Protein: Chloride channel protein
Organism: Junco hyemalis
Amino acid sequence: MANVAKKVSWSGRDRDDDDEDGRAGETTPLLNGSGPGAAGSGRQLTPSSFLRIGQLSNVDLNEDIHELETEVPRQRPNEIPHNEKLLSLKYESLDYDNSENQLFLEEERRINHAAFRTVEIKRWVICAMIGILTGLVACFIDIVVENLAGLKYRVVKDNIDKFTAKGGLSFSLLLWATLNASVVMVGSLIVAFIEPVAAGSGIPQIKCYLNGVKIPHVVRLKTLVIKVCGVILSVVGGLAVGKEGPMIHSGSVIAAGISQGRSTSLKRDFKIFEYFRRDTEKRDFVSAGAAAGVSAAFGAPVGGVLFSLEEGASFWNQFLTWRIFFASMISTFTLNSVLSVYHGNAWDLSSPGLINFGRFDSEKMGYTIQEIPIFIFMGVVGGILGALFNALNYWLTMFRIRYIHRPCLQVVEAMLVAAVTATVGFVMIYCSRDCQPIQGSSVAYPLQLFCADGEYNSMATAFFNTPEKSVVNLFHDPPGSYNPMTLGMFTLMYFFLACWTYGLTVSAGVFIPSLLIGAAWGRLFGISLSYLTKGSIWADPGKYALMGAAAQLGGIVRMTLSLTVIMMEATGNVTYGFPIMLVLMTAKIVGDYFVEGLYDMHIQLQSVPFLHWEAPVTSHSLTAREVMSTPVTCLRRIERVGTVVDILSDTSSNHNGFPVVESNPDTTQVAGLRGLILRSQLIVLLKHKVFVERANLSLVQRRLKLKDFRDAYPRFPPIQSIHVSQDERECMIDLSEFMNPSPYTVPQEASLPRVFKLFRALGLRHLVVVDNRNEVVGMVTRKDLARYRLGKEGLEELSLAQT
């Protein structure tokens, strides 16, 4: 148990007095099980050892924490130890299984057919609103970035032109580096100090949320505002980043906010959509938001739906697919309409996404059957380069977790990267002698520098542009626009810059830098082929730039199905579907041989209890008895209020679900399982004081409705804020009406894959383990299943950490 480490997480702050929902006093939200780390490092094999192991581990761990706290009272350590073979106990699970208690069943029976139709219409209205707002947010980001980046490039270009004539170009370099660093400083400050969860692309966090893990603050309005401002400043600051990845997170936050009909950040309740205030409904809308984000970013509604299915939603149903597609279509249509009006051609809907790869004409750029092996080879190269990118980023992230954990250091690092990016760009433009004629070219900011009149510096077009424009240039510039040396140097430098930039405390995506690196080496590959084949007509560099971009992105993020469709929709050409699919499949197979995908790697580094599609293949030898947490805290159907308060106040075993058993109050013998009740439900019962003086009295207080539970969702008050007098502690509380009378259970002999399948497919939070007499012997939660994974030496068991 020595590896209990305080570690910086996505939420960024040490939550000593504030957990993810802002609840004081619940520092380690455990999923129900024994005390922290009961199932820590060793497998439990015999029932007799359950209680002993649970208690011993509990004591050890608490002593460790106590020692840590006494040694380091308040100061932050210079180095934070980190071990990726840990599983964090601080992440709670979402509850995707409806609690079918009496209140729920009564409400469902009262709803007639017309009311169900109304609920269904509301779902469609919410999906339309998600699409419209996501599209508008994308428009806002695009327009602001275009104007601010344009202003910056014009200022720097004028300055360089001025100093080229009279000498003193070092001033131009200083101006460029200062502009970049100051813009990125603002973007990094708001993320590091206001909302750390807004850092990065947000895709790993949304993947976790849709998988069933509650990530602190991930779908808050404040996170959306910081995300949007942060991504604008990152792109304008010239970092090697894109604005497409964060759109997925932004869409998810918009979906979560609209579907709940209120904002906890603004402390406003609009009293609409109250029926959807539960995890099950919220998750479905967040899936739609993520799809709408992809759709707005790439103009790819089908790709958005498939992204949500492949990368996000762990639980899927048929009706949901159509609604998500509807939200995606509305999103791309809104973006298209607004941008078309903004660009002055209102009736020509020509801007379906934030990035438009332009039209790839099949007649000019078709492919032949003998090119298929070449494309497969490009996939292999993409897989190897992607694996290298991920491995470098892994070590860099480990370094950041250990040493760069203070917000001020994170801001300094972001400013350093911004200044270095500008310096590298300037030096490469300065050293490049690759001059191309301006006539007939579509360069936005042609920089002459040392070129002859009527010519521009080709290297400057790659750096003197937002990454999106650079990608499109590499796809569509005519053959001969780039010198092979220029492309080779650019690929090398941009590869390391993008790798260094991903993981900074700024809002930024990795999609566009990956496409840009791939497009650069793909075009270089195409030029080389054309040299080798003496300029054959089929060796078009633009086509190979597209395949290189797909290979590089596939090698880094390891998406297959959705990425194929996104690339097809973004190019507007179905002909390339087959080669793109081949390239992505090859890149994924080769990349997976070396290291996992970038998003999965970052999820693992944060020690999140993420459940993959299947249980580890070699886990059939394990049974529920060996993986479950124990001992389990049970409640009787009619329980003393004092007992309930004491159990909820016990910080050493911060359980969230309690099996309810039928038992005679005078005996200590545990009887059969009768139901399951959640911590949140008990807190609402105590808050409304739903108890009577003696067990045989009937309830006289006003009856609680489901609305009372929905009003408290998602941030239930902490138990410390509920006052229970000494007299009230002696009262009794009847749980029959509020508990779920039919919780899912498994026998203790069930194999791990069987338990895993049931738990994951139904989106459970608690799975009760019973013996042949239906008595509770243990509880399986997310952390019990997530801690078994397939390592290089076979089945590994992760330790549980208090962070």
Notes: The domain at 369-605 is CATH 1.10.3080.10 (Clc chloride channel). DSSP finds 27 helices and 18 strands in the chain.
